[in-house]
Amino acid sequence: MSGNTFGTLFRLTTFGESHGVGLGGVVDGCPPGLAVSEEAIQRELDRRKPGQGGPAATARKESDTVRLLSGVFEGLTTGTPIGFVIMNEDQRSRDYSAIKDVFRPGHADLGFEAKFGLRDYRGGGRSSGRETVSRVAGGAVARAFLHSLGIVVRAATIELGGIPAQARDFDGAQDRPFFSADPEAVDAWTERVQAVKAQGDTLGGVVELRASGVPAGLGEPVFDKLDARLACALMGVGAVKGVEVGAGFASARATGSANNDPITPQGFLSNNAGGILGGMSSGQEIVVRAAVKPIPSIALPQRTVSRDGEARSITIGGRHDICAIPRIVPVLGAMAALVLADFVLLQRRLGR
Amino acid sequence: MSGNTFGTLFRLTTFGESHGVGLGGVVDGCPPGLAVSEEAIQRELDRRKPGQGGPAATARKESDTVRLLSGVFEGLTTGTPIGFVIMNEDQRSRDYSAIKDVFRPGHADLGFEAKFGLRDYRGGGRSSGRETVSRVAGGAVARAFLHSLGIVVRAATIELGGIPAQARDFDGAQDRPFFSADPEAVDAWTERVQAVKAQGDTLGGVVELRASGVPAGLGEPVFDKLDARLACALMGVGAVKGVEVGAGFASARATGSANNDPITPQGFLSNNAGGILGGMSSGQEIVVRAAVKPIPSIALPQRTVSRDGEARSITIGGRHDICAIPRIVPVLGAMAALVLADFVLLQRRLGR
Amino acid sequence: MSGNTFGTLFRLTTFGESHGVGLGGVVDGCPPGLAVSEEAIQRELDRRKPGQGGPAATARKESDTVRLLSGVFEGLTTGTPIGFVIMNEDQRSRDYSAIKDVFRPGHADLGFEAKFGLRDYRGGGRSSGRETVSRVAGGAVARAFLHSLGIVVRAATIELGGIPAQARDFDGAQDRPFFSADPEAVDAWTERVQAVKAQGDTLGGVVELRASGVPAGLGEPVFDKLDARLACALMGVGAVKGVEVGAGFASARATGSANNDPITPQGFLSNNAGGILGGMSSGQEIVVRAAVKPIPSIALPQRTVSRDGEARSITIGGRHDICAIPRIVPVLGAMAALVLADFVLLQRRLGR
Amino acid sequence: MSGNTFGTLFRLTTFGESHGVGLGGVVDGCPPGLAVSEEAIQRELDRRKPGQGGPAATARKESDTVRLLSGVFEGLTTGTPIGFVIMNEDQRSRDYSAIKDVFRPGHADLGFEAKFGLRDYRGGGRSSGRETVSRVAGGAVARAFLHSLGIVVRAATIELGGIPAQARDFDGAQDRPFFSADPEAVDAWTERVQAVKAQGDTLGGVVELRASGVPAGLGEPVFDKLDARLACALMGVGAVKGVEVGAGFASARATGSANNDPITPQGFLSNNAGGILGGMSSGQEIVVRAAVKPIPSIALPQRTVSRDGEARSITIGGRHDICAIPRIVPVLGAMAALVLADFVLLQRRLGR
């Protein structure tokens, strides 16, 4: 498959390029009778919109207005596919000759050219971060479904530019700059972003996701483990280079007696497992983290080659973000929501 | 889907429980005309066999003899499904009353019970590490296919019990204790394992995978990124709690100028990307790491609950490994090989 | 899966209801470098447009204007998903109280209600024939791909209202009333349609499909036989109640010596197999037929029940076709084209 | 995909060649807690066994003994994959030089060679009817699942050698020669078979399937219609050249008023729809028919070509059936059971 469909029973198929006519998608498999509206989807889209998020953000202006074309009747889902579109508006006419025949370091250009033999070089085409607008729209439908079952997925930034957050306030994070899990971290992160921006450079960070209300038993015991699917979902977002569950890489350095989470009649006494054991949810909160690399489009000169293999130096200006955070945060949340919605439906097959 | 099939065009379907009659699988989609034999598969199986690997290993004895039932004619694959079985031999009659009605901390028991309402409690059933024997057999076929194209996947241990390897000798690792990437690390790791074993405790570690000969352009730009599928494949192996590509979590702390890999007519000057950009291979060596948690079956007393929710203390004896390393190493290599074989076939659809 | 995606490597996902905002779809997996335009798709759409096809057709007026949103750059496909929409225009405000709470005989109403618990009752919603507009658009892309390989799929009517065509002129059929394979049949069919229309009744017929230029070896030997997938594709179009390949049901009455197609160095001497042997194409022309039932919306009174299970009489007026032919003809052709495009891509995996 | 897996949530993956080591498969997705045994599966296998069914049958002797390897614990399914094998016994050493380099008319040889470039020519390899033993075993598990829900699938022969059955006694058919729906037809069919056998020729026929107890709403409204999936399932069995639902091809000749099934508070007054409307079950009995072509292996001389394209005459002796009926009857029943089991699980996703 070409990888533009995500999920088995709760499925999102997306399309659209950065500078094409429009983007959109189809949510298939959403159960009937669920309240879904353009407004609810728009709220999620507004959270990743260009121009949000302060000093780290791009200057491109898009209203990112979603239009629902099907699947909702009298305010409720009907069980039929939910088609939606987000038309591109700010397709500013530009001179692409600087990047048309050059492979930008850290970008998908080279692989795209090798794979397809041609590419829509305007703004990254299908490999642009703009592609994620459809993920967020689809994720909003998944969130609505999960919400009806008491499952809530929240994402927050816990590290930026090497500076870790200390607190884990996921509720407050939703309205905080950088979607920061820690109000104390915001100032230091802002300074770091501004300093790096002034140097023409960019930054990365770490996003943590938490899902509460997840019943025990979601996920399949062998290949389709809940953590495997979450890892696929998060690593499938551009710029993510690492995923860990619960204690993650730290558990590799612990002993079994320290890493195991004791169980009592009142519940688990710790959550090193991140709420997933043997690929299935344990009933604890799901905890997953994603490492986000710095934006590869930097204003400093870089060595690269042209399509003909000749040496070139490239300096990338344009309307780029300094850091994929905060805009990637709602995208990661959307992907986790899609995974959970899918497993909820898969679980129902067992009639339990 | 129930998650016992892996892959799209190069597919492995597996079955079998730890203490059932036998395990096995079906490799579907392997191209015709490829030399495949029981001997070649057996060589891979022998690398993960119980009783190998020195002080960290289980005492259970299984010959793990694979039998090919179909799909190979006169020594060559025919393009039809390759069925294989590995019969269980050492299904030692034991008293399972200690674990039958108790959830072992760190194990899949609780999720399994919540999911299915009943479970084959003998030795973990389908959630046993023994399940991976079928992965290794299927991976051996994938390796043979990749080998015919000049693609080689190697896995080695780069950290054990918190002690990192310094060297990265992947060739030598294949015949070294712990499949260690560093001959110097073996003694320290052996001491660490023996000390922890004496305490009744267990250990984890980190495995690194490298794939050479991978052409540029494998992987799909959006959901089915090469790194996303690798993350799914590795996180889908029991005990893995984290996956990272190239610089991984460290890239989240770097600036763009430091993290980008400069390109020259002679090739890339670094490989922080781990050979994957925008979800597609770049032509560089693929580098991925998996964090392996300590074995949860420890000989020390642990707090847990019974199926009725009553408090219990459990001490797990039996024939268990102290560390999933080294036996997990060929399993992780097999999974990476399956992913790459699948993407090679997917790429062919483009006629390029 | 919810059944709104068709195909494995060449995939069409569709959405949209008869009286919703719009319909559309996503073609994923189309190889790059193929000339595709709105004009080419529009030509196919115009062939199934309401208001075409003479006396058998509906009075609803829709321009059925397709808009491409992605996947085509500078006139060529890029290998990324091709999103398209067709907005609904003639959503005439009507009084649906007559059918809102009543199950129309021969329609999907009852199953829809049983399945989803609610339905978009306006004009059949997702179960309307209008859904097929997205199939034809997707099929147009498949046709363009097949055309680049010399494969041509043509569909024509060979029977209507019980009156069989004698000739098999598939070239001429494309511009003929009813897409008739026989110019001689047109007058008799027209009379039959007018007579039945005057009675408030409806008609069915038989459509034959032929695909030329199909290389030998397409199709998979066991479950995914070429004829199995074609049967699924055609039977998946509303109103189709039977599918047969080559001699079809007549072969059940023949002896082996009469039914086998002799092979000579100059080719086959007959084509009872319809170009498919053992589920794979033989290199001969593919021949498949679909039986189309009469339109169930008739102007005569019928016995039925309400949602509450009470007896009702229903007489259906409205803007309905008298016969699914001719509008179903391009739909069936589109589905066959999608199947063949998918198998062409699947075949490439073998590197042959 | 390579087409050796059938189904979405209730999945059967099969492997094995006619003269290989063994055949088998994996049933994945069967819900837990269901009583399944080797004996129950064996009973279904015995119904298609070589040597059964009187004068129409092959002389090859196989005990077709199934062995369950996994997925059943203490007599109940566990929800994990059910692996099974049937070893080949009667792999009589023969001289295949007559068919090794020749394409048998009416067989898959030519397509197989074109597809894969090589083939296991012994007895048809993967394209042999022997492949269906795995379908019947998998279907037996599906039947057990359906039985637990009150759904019963029965298949019977309603026409053989052009001689139609008059009665439709599906209960009695299960123990009757030819699985005939009509006790009166048996003698005529026996005579027809013997006469044709004496001529060195072969016969076809028609099989009807009926499924009772199917709740309304199974099937998906667009591509994955219940009838589309049934058509795929049945057309995917070797020798089937046509499939029709309810009135089938006859409905193409009826008017809407005659073809529609009136609905009353007491139920439908007819069943021309064959229990399926708009791709979803209506609650009526499901009625489907499959046209089975004559066995292509005939003892009469036939014109064909060699792999080198040279003219040849071939006369096929050996241990072949005269008619695919009756052995194909349990195979078709198995496929229909697999389709229904899959749709039952798919329906559960809706939580209804």
Kindly state the percentage of residues in helix of chain A: 25-40%
User: What's the end-to-end separation of chain A, in Å?
Assistant: 31 Å
The quaternary state of the protein chains shown equals homotetramer
**Structural classification of chain A:** alpha+beta
Number of helices of chain A: 9
Written description of the protein model:
Chains A, B, C, D: It holds the Pfam family Chorismate_synt. The structure is a homotetramer of 352-residue chains. Chain A is of the alpha+beta class and 352 residues long. Chain A has one domain (5-348): 4-Layer Sandwich (Chorismate synthase, AroC fold). The first copy, chain A, has helices at residues 38-47, 97-100, 109-116, 132-147, 170-173, 185-198, 226-235, 256-259, 328-348; strands at residues 5-6, 11-15, 22-28, 66-68, 72-73, 76-77, 82-87, 152-160, 163-164, 205-212, 240-245, 263-264, 267-268, 276-277, 280-281, 286-292, 302-305, 311-314. Chain A has a five-stranded antiparallel sheet, covered by helices on one side. In chain A, helix 1 (38-47) packs across helix 4 (132-147) and helix 7 (226-235) packs antiparallel against helix 9. Chain A is globular and about 65 Å long. Chain A starts with a strand and ends with a helix. At the A-B interface, strand 1, helix 3, helix 7, strand 11 and helix 8 of A face strand 1, helix 3, helix 7, strand 11 and helix 8 of B. Strand 11 of chain A pairs antiparallel with strand 11 of chain B.
